[in-house]
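To close the chapter, one final illustration. This time we ask the reader to focus less on the individual chains and more on the assembly as a whole: which components sit near each other, and how the overall shape emerges from the parts.
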Amino acid sequence: MSKVWAVARREFVERVRSRWFWISSALVPVFFAAVVLLPTVLTEASGTKRIVVVDGTPPFGAKVADALSEGRVFRASHVAAASGVVDSLVAEVGAKRLDGVLVLPPSFLDDGAAEYRASNVSSLRDVEELDRVLGQLGTEVRLERAGIDPALLARTQLPINLTTNKISGSQTTGESSKQSFSLAYFMGITLYTVILMYGVNVKSSVLEEKTTRIVEVLVSSVRPFALLLGKVLGVGAVSLFQLALWGAAGRALLHERAALVSRITGLSAASDLFQVPTVSTETGAVFVAYFLGGFFLYAAMFAAVGAMSSSEQEAQQAQQPIVLVLVLAFVSMFALLGDPNSNLSIALSVIPFTSPIAMPVRWAAGDLPPTELGVSLALLAVAIVGVTWIAARIYRVGILMTGKRPGIRELARWVRAG
Amino acid sequence: MTKRFAGHVAVNDLSLAVPSGVIYGLLGPNGAGKTTTIRMILDIFIPDEGSVRLFGGVGTAREHSARVGYLPEERGLYRKMRVMDVLVFLAEMRGLERRVARERAAAWLERLGLAAWRQRRIDELSKGMQQKVQFISTVLHEPTLVVLDEPFAGLDPVNAQVLKDVVVELRQSGTTVLFSTHIMEQAERLCDRLCIIARGRKLVDGSLADIKRTSTGQHVTIGFDGDSGGAAGVLGDATIVKKVDHYGRYAELELAPGADPQRLLRALVESGARIARFELVEPSLHKIFIDLVGPADAAEAEGGAA
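The assembled structure is written out below.
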């Protein structure tokens, strides 16, 4: 048993020590941040704009200019409307000494019509900000004109705050619908990536020992199964460690997202598709259970692939069917998110080879009967035992074989042997 | 024991007894079954028939792994690992404690001139250095049985000398060394006992002296000084010479039964050959090997050695 531990520790230490591990640990959160932040940042990255408010309804224009300057989008000044003013300001914009001109005609407070002329009018942020300030100030002035105290109105307005909460087994989970979606989405992507990545790692490790013939020395001192077990446990521990790193980074990122967006763009992020998911204990447990199950299932198969190949190229070919199944499970995630309770979805989340990705996605996306979860987990456990048994037999023979990659019939003989 | 692979018998009813505390050579041409035999001894392959017993008792090589060291024919180490880490890990596989392994590894690295490389990665080392590291890993846990599969293959003369010294030293400290080779000169100089196998079968085994004694007939070595004159004709005379191995300036031959060496010498002098050396000798292991294995297999073995 101490040898299993030694094998596992070697796998863990060597992998965590590698540059590759830390690059992938850093790159994934960066990529994740890019996905979450970039769309907002890209449209908003234009910086503060200098504009002039041409005031046809003094002193309203001055108030608008002040309110705009308070935000981080605009730096605004105001001039009284006069003939030729707009033309000369437009000329300034043309000369790039000014970013835009907001024209408030005398009739603005009656019909709300205003005009924004700028070199770039496609920025949603600019338009949103103008809309917000003009709407708010215009409403206040018109309320005053009608003899209503704006403060009174503010007191009477009822802010609507509709929260959506997922119910799981007649218990509210604290996960909202948008959160459910983003959670399911990220869980699916993460499971697929990590299972594939570390499955391939197990394969490479087996292949390295086989091609360098170190395996002969190892097998003369530990049983092949103990070697395989130590290897899978070691690589599994690395994958959990990396998941924890990503989890911590992702959590911090999502938590600070609003602050990050507003620091970069100058606006508070109003509507997001991806909200900060609250991961309940149950969801976390389901994720980890299926991650471990999926990892063991696929790692055993990848180990067998490594053992039956004698070069990296051969292994690349031999692993195709396994990767294909995994890709299938990943792609099916999108169908699952559309309708988590269709027959297809149920089938995918119960079949052991797709369930490690499909089931956590379904779990996160919607309510699930506990019996389904139980059946799915039981089948996965059975599959792990069966697949590992077969894989270990292929491994035991394969690691000492050289030459041509065996066909199906040869493999069957290996499995039957002793 | 017997081991079969798809279609052929690699080792056929082979029986070996290796006394403890000796250097034992397993000799044979390529494909004779040396590596398969060694793998069965080490519990890497399970014999189809027969069994392996170690240290006079029960238990496989794997159960005795702390007492066994093994250097496989094809060398290799984890290329990305550091020298010290590889040594400690492999010693751990043999049941050695990490701390002890670290100390011993440091001493060995020092001794073989690799102390400065202990924190370097294996793939930064030259091939010769890697072989030294792998050799250290074979003996680090101080095994009582060391199995070396073709240990001298691919070694430069300096490393071969280092290895030879260590092997002799191991024997002096009471360790049993079993090694396979097809280089006869090495076996002749190193082995206390040996076994020659070909095509999976044992041809002969015992101590070197025994093997030489059982090889019948009188053997003569002749050195020519320049002109060998009509020597070829004399050596071809079947009434005097039974078998000849002619190298041009040098010949090893076995006399025909009852033939007088003096008669051969006289005939050679009369043929006009200039004799630099004429010696009655016991046959070299090389000669015995070729006689036993047969010229075709022997040629293959020599080809492999070149």
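The two ends of chain B are 31 Å apart (CA to CA). Confidence is low (pLDDT under 50) at residues 302-306 of chain B. With these observations in hand, you are ready for the problems at the end of the chapter.
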